[in-house]
Amino acid sequence: MSSGYTKGDFAVFLDAYPFEQPWKAVKEESGMNNTTRIVYTGDKKYVLRVYDNHRDAGIVQIEHMLLAELQKSELPYRVPQPITNRDGSTITSSADGKLAALYDYIDGERPSALVESHIEGLGRAAGTLSQAMQRLMTDSCVEPLHKPYYELEQSQAVTSNAVLLDLSASSERLSKRKQELHLLIDERARLSSMRSAFAALPHQWIHGDIVFTNALVHEEHITGLLDFEFCTVDLRAMELAVVLAEFPETDSERAIEKLSLFCRGFGSMVKLSEAEINLLSDLIKLRMLDVFLHFAGRLAEGLDEEHIWDEQIARASFVCSWLDLHKKELDCLFYSYLYEVEDHCYQALS
After folding, report:
1. Exposed site from 88, 108, 160, 183, fewest CB < 10 Å?
2. Alpha carbon distance 95, 93 (integer Å)
């Protein structure tokens, strides 16, 4: 991905902007889906994002329209602000159709999942964003292009169970994941059968990918949320489920503590319904299945090496099993921090 770019490739995009001084594009970090460069010009800094995983200008237009609306929401942190090019557009394309966008630089470091104030702060920031995005549901006429997570069989149709089994049999390394793979195939069938129950839950615009690598922090305070590329109308509770999928680990006591901190932060801003809380563990599994199938598709297309999907199989199967093992404790935790009735967890466990 990013290793294939030259200065000339970035010039195709950056020369479209009316910089007053010469620019320099520096590789400081880059994600799995896109190529990112920090752009220095005079005393100003910007972020150039080149979209590697699609060439659909409609997706970027929705991202930018939502960001424009969120700029009016008086959030306690910053979100990306697209810069207009010489043609008056916030999207710049190359001759071969590749898309890029330039954003104001937001100061801050990545928060750490090892710092309690960062975990609770990110939870509070996610809840604040959820409130703002809920208002966009009625104020915005933008139509989403991404399908909700629970439409798994539509969005991941190319990665059928037959494709998964063929991929697994394609190498000695992957064939050793047979047990985990069958666990995930069984979970896929179960979650797909729950589509109607998921679809009945409250919907709104969500970010869809709030994780620690998509946030910025200064000392103990969240200063920015990034990467709104996957915004869509989905289940309100899915915003929370996406992040909670990050926390399960072999040290279960520490994992529960992190989940509690994040839910306390999120719950201080947004409360969920009983139906949402009862299905929250399944929504976390839904996130894990979606990621697992996404990387299966990338392997099938020759975009990734097999070790990446191997890691995703291991992670997804671990999280699904971990959620089952700790279900009662998690239900109590979710009711304690996310439901209006504070003592409901005792009813849930009775």
Report:
1. 88
2. 7
Range of the domain at 209: 116-349
Nearest alpha carbon to residue 102 among 18, 20, 28: 18
Place of tokens 């997570």: 149
| C-beta atoms surrounding 294 within 10 Å | 17
Sole residue written with tokens 């297309």: 301
Residues 182, 188, 194, 196, Cα dihedral to 10°: -160
Residues 188, 48 share a domain: no
pLDDT tens for residues 93-133?
A: 998 899 999 999 999 999 999 999 999 999 999 999 999 99
Domain annotation covers residue 110: no
8 A C-beta contact, residue 305 and residue 291: no
Structural contact between residues 283 and 149, judged by C-beta atoms closer than 8 angstroms = yes
Token digits of residue 177:
């994941």
Which residue is associated with the tokens 């064939």? Answer: 175
Angstrom distance (rounded) from CA 290 to CA 14: 34
**Global pTM exceeds 0.70:** yes
Which residues 6+ apart lie within 8 Å of 274 measured at CB? Answer: 339, 344
* Residue labelled with tokens 């703002």: 132
Whole-number Å distance between alpha carbons of 35 and 50: 5
| Residue 111 included in any domain | no
